[in-house]
Amino acid sequence: MATLLEVDGVSKSFGGVAANVDITFNVEEGAILGLIGPNGAGKTSLFNSISGEVTPDKGEIRLRGKRISGLGPVACSRAGVARTFQVVRSFDSMSVLENVMVGAFSHINRAREAARHALHTLDICGLGARADTPAHSLTPPEKRRLEVARALATNPTVLLLDEMLTGLTPTEAQAGVQLIRDVRRNGVTVVMVEHVMEVLLPLIDDAVVLNLGRVLTVGKPTDVVRNPEVIRAYLGDRYVAA
Amino acid sequence: MTFHVVAQVALSGLLMGLIYALVAAGLSLIFGLMDVVNFAHGELLMVAMFATFVIFQATGLDPLLQLPLVAILLFGLGVAIYRGLIARALSVQFNRGMVQIFVTFGLAIFLRGAVQFVFGGDFRSISGSLLGDRTLHLFGLFVPLPQMAAGIASLIAFAGLLLISRTEFGKALEATREDRDAVALIGIDRNKIFALGWGLGAATVGVAGALLAGFYYISPNVGANFALIAYVTVALGGFGSLLGALVAGLLIGLVEAMTALFLEPSLKQVGVYAVYLLVLMLRPRGLFGTI
Amino acid sequence: MELTAPVSLRLGHSATIRRRQHALILGAVLIVALGLLPLPIHDVYTQNLIILTLLFAGLAQAWNILGGYCGQISLGHALYFGIGGYVSTLLYLRLGIPPTLGMFVGGAFGAMAALLVGWPCFRLSGHYYAIATVVIGEIGYLLFLNWDFVGGANGLYIPFKGESLIALQFRTSKLPFHYAALIYAAACWFIAWVVEGSRYGFAWRAVKDDVVAARSLAVRIFPSKMLAAALSGLLTGIGGAIYAQYVGYLDPESMMSGTLSILIALPAVLGGVGTLWGPLLGAAVLTPVSELLRSYLGGSGRGVDLMFYGALIMAVSLARPAGLVSLFVWPGQAKLRRRRGDAA
Fold first, then answer.
1. Considering the entire predicted model, what is its pTM?
2. Interface of C with B in 31-90 (CB under 8 A)
3. ipTM, 2 decimals?
4. Does residue B291 sit at the C interface (CB-CB below 8 Å)?
5. Is C324 an interface residue toward B (CB < 8 Å)?
6. Residue C155: which CATH number?
7. Which of B138, B187, C80, C113 is the most buried (most CB within 10 A)?
8. CA C110 → CA C54, C103, C114, C232, C267, distances in Å?
9. Which domains, and CATH codes, for chain B?
10. C62-109 tens-digit pLDDT
11. C127 contacts B270? CB cut-off 8 A
12. Contact at 8 Å (CB) between A146 and A102?
């Protein structure tokens, strides 16, 4: 499979605190990659660099060989990077359909067509029946879905999911996993930050483990999980190597 | 266009600039404190001028001597405006920014109408005050005494404001300005600070009004021009900065006087506005601004 | 609606689409009603009142595109009004170009001016932007006051050269002006309707709700603001041209003053910013009220009209910050608006 996203030597500090140090890994096209690590490992910060919210101090990020780091969120989105946020950011004054239409408008000009594409995307994400509901009255899991739908409506090449499954009941989490699989089936590469290991590990193809701002290891989930350093980094978490 | 004339005009401009600075200081105080643009600021100045006029007519008390009285009156008015209007505007659920703008705008129009109702639209002036029409002869220049006194009084007022900023109250003001939400944690009642801040801002412009009344014409519409100049001065000096208000005021006064001299009297404000636009483009937060 | 039904059918039933269709129907009905309204009225005072109301409804809607939908509160909009009026009038007086054509040129100049103002000023936040527009408006006013080419303080007088549709000159009846104003107001309303449902309307709402999320969805804020400015300036300028022809006289005081800027912004603010009907409602309430105040109370010069006006502005701003339209919304929408208010 071809390499879609290259993170190359990315470093970023905030006011003297190094959030990311020399991060390097690749994402294969069509894969689901898990970005894992304890709190403070620099995962969201890395996301922010990939999606353009933040410009790395050092290093580069490339999508299909073209640099996307440092271009800002709008340019990154137009290049094909979509994301969800850790704390859901829905457009509360709009309905579910209208929320997703904002995403659709990123590559569609006419409102009717945008609405059509938005409704189609909502169906994929299982929110089709809630199209006219005001966004602010959705349940939290539904709001997460809405974020995914909205990001998906931009027809991205890669979708960054920031702790989408955190805090969900097991049933909700399974539904979320199915959604992510559907997203991948629709041709979108997924990079996800997640804490809920039990749900994550069976889902992802590759894993990148971050700790204290650096890459700890990269590999298949089954290998990464048995890595003694990874276990040590997670000491204090409830997770135990099988 | 001799040096003499230029120097004369420059001095006059600087003295006026001190008044502008004072008006701006009052505006900047409120602005910096709670991010509310007081579109009625010019009208507060106008009310102060009328108050001075009324007291003078009734008691013969010279405007300069009225300063503490007018300051207290305007302080009360400022607090009343906060409690009655602004506090309500701040707690509005929808369109807060717009509500703030238009509430103070409505107040400005109301005050203008109210003063017109009581006094009519004619121009008034104070004549026969202590300093009256006396002129000082300084370094070969003629300085009207009321303007000179106003300038000195403004500087004293600035010193007063500086002193206040060193007190507990002043520090509380500064703290509230920096972080509106956190001050509750250190026991500062935000509402009280806002009210007092409004009072102090109004009192400051009240002093300016009392000083102006000594030599400027008094009419219900006089506030509008000063208000615009105040916005420009605050923008130039930097929101929330006392020193900025002073420096900017002097600069604006000078620019206005020079524009009137070298261009045309009716265009004197254009010079000021041009400066404003320049500052806006090159340094949006003003000379000493922190926001 | 069944999820298995075709997407286009489900869309037709969606609340969003239906709301827009209803608005369009209501608008059409209103236009017809307003078209028939003046026929039984022969009192010149009332006719004039209606014409002014329609003009301000259009102007308010034009302002609303930039100030309400896009969120940039301009308090110096009379600049574009005046530019439109002066350009159109000068073209007519100096070059004989009829105002029916000249108004569009005036509008174009208005649009250009709005773009020029927006370019440097849009990066300023709310209140600072408002002040900048006030100052810029004042500069325009002062410049025109001192510029002989445009007549300076004396202004320009449009001589009556005979009844003419092309030249928008009518003396025997106010009726044609009524229809001109109605077409203008309807056009402004319709353009607002189109913009509201377009990608730009969505972009502005998104930015108001959550600018970070909007940017992550490739919403380009600055170009959309420039579009709002251009549209708003264009429509305001055209309104100025029509007004100039109606009154037959222009001077900076009546065409470009700061007071006029407030009169343009006020109906939308009181009626409901960022809504389709707000500006219309606001104009329908404010124009008659201010005219009445002026003629019955203002004549004495005692400022009672100002007191009423100021009190009205304060009261409506505090009691109904969402505007008068909020009196007409059903409960579900009211909650929606409160949510938007929190984000604002």
1. 0.88
2. 73, 75
3. 0.89
4. no
5. no
6. 1.10.3470
7. C80
8. 20, 10, 6, 8, 20
9. 3-282 (1.10.3470)
10. 999 999 999 899 999 999 999 999 999 999 999 989 999 999 999 999
11. no
12. no
